[in-house]
C-alpha cells in the first residue's frame, strides 16, 4: 500500500482499495492514474492488458479490471489523489468484528477521489516484495506460555504448520500439530495485541492480524514481531509456516 501511494505521489496515509484473492472492476467518471500492486494479478483497461506495479492511465468511462491473484492473497489499487472517504475513529477501513468504519464495497458503489499530486515521489518502476513461498515468524514467548506443556513449546518451534484456508484479516489460522495444555481451566478475557498467537481449544495457533479483537479468552502462547506481519498477510492457504524464537 505504501509503495503504491509513493509511486503516485500520494500522502502515506492516502486510502487505497484492498482486494482479497478475486480482484475487482472500476470505472472512473474522469481520467485517473492508478497503480495495482501487492499480490501479483492480471490488469486490463477495457480488455487490453495493462501493467501491474507501475502507474497506468485509465481514461474516463474505461473499465479497469483487477484480476484474481496469481500468487499471494491481497492486491492494492491506489488512485492518484487517494480515495477521499472520511475516517471513522482514525481509520478508513471496515472493522469486520465491530461493524465500525465504512461498509465493505458492493457492486455499483461510487467512491470520491482526492486531488492528485503534481509529481510522483518515485520513478515509474520500483521493486515489489514477492508473496512468500514459506513463512518464518519470529516469536517471543508469553504471557501464557506456562499454560502449555514443555513438549508443546518444542513442537511450536520445531514443527512445520501450514496457512489454513479459513484465515482472514482477523487472524492467520494454521493447520498442523496441536499444542497440549497443562492448564485445563478457562481464562478470563484479557487484552490482545497485534501479532498475538492465541491457541483455541483445537490446539492450533492463530496469529492475530490487523482486524484482531481487542480482547480474548484463549491463552496467548507468544507474540510475533510486528515487522513480520506484512508478509504473513500475503501468505496463501497451504503456505508452510515455521515459528522461531527471537
TrEMBL record:
The keyword Transport does not apply. Keywords: ATP-binding, Hydrolase, Nucleotide-binding. SMART domains: AHS2. GO terms for molecular function: ATP binding; hydrolase activity. Residues 1-245 form the Carboxyltransferase domain. InterPro entries: CT_A_B, Cyclophilin-like_dom_sf, PxpC. Signal peptide: none annotated. PANTHER family: 5-OXOPROLINASE SUBUNIT C (PTHR43309:SF3). This is Allophanate hydrolase. It comes from Streptomyces filipinensis.
